[in-house]
Specification:
2 helices; six-stranded antiparallel β-barrel; alpha+beta; Thrombin, subunit H
């Protein structure tokens, strides 16, 4: 019985030795035949998609980070370009304003007769911001202004007189100021008239029914020059009335003026 047990033990030991020898032999054969190299290739084939996926994930992350940076950079550049564009537009507007003002001044100075003792003034406030039918100009007693000096618009059209003087500004009362009476001469007939201001650059006057007063006829200031103060718009009359009312307007739109000229004594 004991003898049989020892035999079984020896047989199992031999089987283990034989199995180990077979495994070592197989590994040797595989090594010599290059199967391990092929297995390495297979490992690369299997690993390649994984590596690519990993690289794609990393690349995507990097690209998204780059895109985020690029978008931020592009946004900032776009904002800077917008600002530069606005600045350029503003500069062009300023340039155009200065050019227009220069052109207007040249045109204005071209209408001022030579040897006239006129001083140019900027209008600070017009009738919509100053007392009704008055102007405020930027020259005063410091520039030699005094009351009753005549004020011209568009170079040669009398529009009013200085009524109050301050150190650096003056108040100009327009001839069309409501109720203001200004003497004039009806051009063509040499009829002396009195213009009565009605506000907003408008006048009326009363003249004999037989004095010609068709639309477009002029009223001038009585002096050596023919300074036009008003133009006839229409007539209101009645057959039995020896007088007629003539409606007139100033040839200058004060709201469109930026400068006036004051005639110094």
């Amino acid at each position: 019985m004991i003898h049989q047990f020892h035999d079984k033990k020896r047989i199992a030991k031999r089987k283990n030795i034989i199995r180990n020898i077979i495994v070592i032999g197989i590994l040797f054969i595989i090594s010599i035949s290059g199967v391990l190299a092929w297995s390495g290739k297979l490992f690369n084939i299997i690993g390649l998609p994984i590596w690519k996926a990993q690289n794609n994930v990393l690349s995507t992350a990097n690209n998204e980070s780059y895109l985020l940076r690029s978008k931020s950079s592009l946004f900032n550049e776009n904002e800077m370009l917008k600002k530069d564009n606005i600045d350029l537009k503003n500069q062009m507007i300023d340039y155009q304003i200065i050019k227009n003002e220069n052109d207007k001044l040249k045109e204005l100075l071209g209408r001022i007769p030579p040897k006239e003792n006129l001083i140019l003034a900027t209008i600070l406030a017009k009738p919509n911001r100053s007392p009704y039918d008055t102007l405020i100009i930027d020259i005063g007693s410091d520039s030699g202004m005094t009351n009753n000096l005549q004020v011209f618009g568009d170079g040669n059209v009398p529009i009013g007189e200085i009524s109050k003087v301050y150190p650096n500004t003056s108040l100009v009362t327009l001839y069309s100021n409501p109720g203001k009476i200004t003497p004039g001469v009806l051009d063509g007939s040499n009829t002396s008239v009195e213009l009565i201001g009605r506000g907003g650059g408008n006048f009326d006057m009363m003249i004999p029914i037989d004095v010609p007063s068709e639309n477009g006829k002029l009223v001038v200031i009585p002096n050596l020059k023919t300074d036009i103060i008003a133009i006839v718009d229409g007539v209101i009359s009645a057959p039995t009335d020896p007088m007629k009312k003539v409606l007139l307007h100033s040839p200058v739109n004060v709201q469109g003026l930026k400068w006036v000229e004051v005639k110094r004594n």
